[in-house]
Write a structure and sequence with these properties.
By secondary structure, the chain is mainly alpha-helical. It has two helices and no strands. The chain has a domain at 1-40. The radius of gyration is 18 Å and the shape is extended.
Length: 62
């Protein structure tokens, strides 16, 4: 990771922290606000149905 990458990560974390703080760390309010921002962005939002969980015996470990 370069020094520039570190600066970007630091900025993202600071903004995330400020956003959470502005909503009193209330996860419901944070989620609602992020969903509102998504809707207002005009970007296409793709939703997919939840996938069925597979029992551990069918998992592939490589």
């Amino acid at each position: 990771m370069t020094e520039r990458d570190d600066e970007i990560v630091k900025e993202i974390r600071l903004r995330r922290q400020a956003h959470a703080e502005s909503l009193d760390y209330d996860l419901k309010r944070i989620t609602e606000d992020l969903q509102r921002q998504e809707r207002e962005s005009g970007a296409e939002i793709i939703s997919r149905p939840p996938r069925q969980a597979q029992p551990p015996s069918e998992w592939s470990i490589e």
